[in-house]
Amino acid sequence: MITGASSGIGEALALEFARRGIHVALVGRRIDALESVAARVRELGAGALVLPGDVADRDFAESAVQKTIEAFGALDLLVLSAGISMWARFDEVKELDLFERIMKVNYLGAVYFTYFALPYLRTRGGDIVAISSHTGITGVPTRTGYAASKHALQGFFDSLRVELRETPMNILVVSPGFVDTPIRENILGGDGQKAGYQGRATEAPMPLEEAIRQILEAIEGRKRELVMTGRARFGRFLRLIAPALVDRIAAKAVGDPGR
């Protein structure tokens, strides 16, 4: 089961799983996009179940899991890829509902699907893959609500991993940086409306193909964490000894000089 399966990382993983003969349940808000992904999955010889809905809806999460079990009889892997981002300084935010929406989609949506899927995953010794972000490791200006949701996601799965340590399950938290996916086009501004990516034009995102290669390798290796760039891994270490320097690097990375 893949949330956020209509585009980006979720879509690409669905197609890679299909190439391996793995049936997929596709969760997302845009039924037309999901149907397009499902058609390509079936062309590759795997089964596809289309589940349109909002991951922030608890009842939908429960229904989607049940429909997946009814269709395929089991659940072996849950990929939580649905997410929305923002680009606005906190003192420029005009609509506080923006924070509630981001937290519901990025964090609570993952909690809901995990809650309803967990009994079936435990039965199979299945895995959970949560797509987080570098901002789940360290704060970034203009991303306060997004960073908070990813910090919450990281803490939730770190805790759940400990609770499940006596089971054969594995939890992988993936922390990408800038990846070339549509999430960059759908970034919300301080008014809660689409604003698009407003970072430095010279910043090159990681190709989606490279991101997928790394994620698949981590899933197959049953790793617990994947921080996708050397810069982010170094930054995580540097934060322990020079946090102010990391703050300056983060501000420079998004072109936010402060006021």
Give the structure's gist in a few sentences.
The chain is an alpha/beta fold. The chain has helices at 8-19, 31-43, 58-72, 97-124, 144-163, 208-220, 230-241, 243-253; strands at residues 2-3, 24-28, 48-52, 77-80, 127-131, 170-175, 225-227.
Account of the 3D structure:
Helix 4 runs parallel beside helix 5 and helix 7 (230-241) packs antiparallel against helix 8. The protein has a single domain (2-230), classed as Rossmann fold, CATH 3.40.50.720. It has helices at residues 8-19, 31-43, 58-72, 97-124, 144-163, 208-220, 230-241, 243-253, and strands at residues 2-3, 24-28, 48-52, 77-80, 127-131, 170-175, 225-227. With 259 residues, it is α/β, with parallel strands linked by helices. It has a 7-stranded parallel β-sheet, sandwiched between helices. Strand 1, helix 1 and strand 2 (24-28) form a beta-alpha-beta unit. The protein contains 8 helices and 7 strands; from the N terminus they run E-H-E-H-E-H-E-H-E-H-E-H-E-H-H. The model has no long low-confidence stretch (mean pLDDT 88).
